[in-house]
Amino acid sequence: MSVKHAFLGLLAEGPLHGYELKLSFEERLLPSSPLNYGQVYGSLERLERDGLVEHEVIVQEERPDKKVYRITAAGLGELDRWLRNPSVPALDLRNETFLKLAVARRLGDIDTAEVLASERRGSLRRLREVTEARRQAGAEGKGVQLLLLLDLAAFRLEAFLKWLERCEELFDQEATTNGNGNAEDA
Amino acid sequence: MATVTQRMPETTDGGTAAVVVKGVRKVFGTGETAVEALRGVDIVVPKGEFLAVMGPSGSGKSTLLHLVGGLDRPTEGTIEVGGQDLASLSDDELTLLRRRRIGFVFQFFNLLPILSAAENVALPLMVDGVREKQAFERAAASLERVGIAGRSAHRPTELSGGEQQRVAIARALVAEPVLILADEPTGNLDSAAGEQVLDLLRNVVDEGAQTVLMVTHDPRGAATADRMIMLKDGRVAEDHELGRAASLAEVLSHLEELEG
User: Fold this and answer.
1) In B, which residues are within 8 Å of A165 by CB distance?
2) Contacts of B1 (CB under 8 A, 6+ apart)
């Protein structure tokens, strides 16, 4: 996920200072992902280094000076390029469940079925929460953007639960094949 | 119908369980071709619970639903619905129990095509001896409850899949049964219509006194329930309490942890 490009998008609507960017990002774009100040100012520094934004210092009497950022022509070009080009889908293969299953299969101290059952419980509970939040959001007439974010979470969890089913099928198949292997080969 | 004047036997206990399945085995066929669909299943469904039953095909989940619905009898073990032991009931009494205490919702809706939505919903009441006027009043209230009062004069072919399923749910609810049995109720619907049907079943549990037992393949369906039981090879392989749902704000605050 590119915070930098999200910032370019926010700045394309008008100049903002760092804290306003953080708030706008969280309120208007991605309510599930609070930004820390390191991310905010790190992103702004890199954008400025690349000539995509520039800032002017507003001197304030009672409070520290603040930097107000605005997008440059190059920044608008980069924003346009980002919007029009496909993102590389994040596959999230550094997956904890996958690791647990791989370790369990090697050790044999714990049945993979037991690992799958506990992982399924975890994911289903999450999906239950998200599904209920989606219902609440729908009933409260929340905007389509929030509904779609919750849908994204739900679809991901559904896909993951389907993958857990697949794990079970293939482990069972493997056990059957190993069990009857000789008979089938003969 | 000769059964109109018959009375339901009194329930043996006013307990807290809507369904009790005890040591149930079900064998189809005999001898070498016998298939053991259920191999000793114990499940208690408390009143007011929404239970999802999942499992690969052949795991016995449809058989379980048929047995709990009194559409078939177990080879061994007992099944109680609303405190009544199904084995103690004659076929006529079982028919009455199905008509008055259990509502069925199917994957393919099973509505009568020549009847309007209101007629489909009123029919089971009239078969049970309720007078026409009263039956249609109750049907109208039931259609209202599922949010399609405006479609009551339409025939099934004039309704979308989601609407047909809502009519089927209205029909299941009209006799105010203790138990709703749903067999893949979203299996034949697109995702938006499926969600509406799940919402509706969720509301039935939250707002009414009903208990729902739903067989499903759909993880989102299971996640609408309070509890999920996984059947495998005719046995309960997993039993997961899914807990009460969190608030929108709580969920949003830790949504990012959901990944992976």
Assistant:
1) 56
2) B127, B128, B129
Please check whether residue B232 is in contact with residue A115, taking contact to mean a CB–CB distance below 8 angstroms. Answer: no
Q: What is the pTM of this model?
A: 0.84
Nearest CA in chain B to A142: B248
Could you tell me if B229 and B52 are in contact, meaning their C-beta atoms sit under 8 angstroms apart?
Answer: yes
Categorise residue A69: left if φ over 0, alpha if ψ from -120 to 50, beta otherwise. Answer: beta
In sequence order, which residues have a C-beta less than 8 Å from that of residue A161 and are 6 or more positions away?
A120, A123, A124, A127, B219
Intervals of chain B under pLDDT 70: 1-14, 244-245, 257-260
Q: Sign of the CA dihedral B97, B99, B102, B106? A: positive
Partners of B260 on chain A (C-beta within 8 Å) are 92, 94-97, 160
Is ipTM over 0.90? Answer: no
Secondary structure letter of residue B130 according to DSSP: -
Quick one: which of B77, B48, B47, B46 has its CA closest to B60? B77
Joined tokens for residue B164:
């047909």
Alpha-carbon gap, residue A89 to A84, rounded angstroms: 15
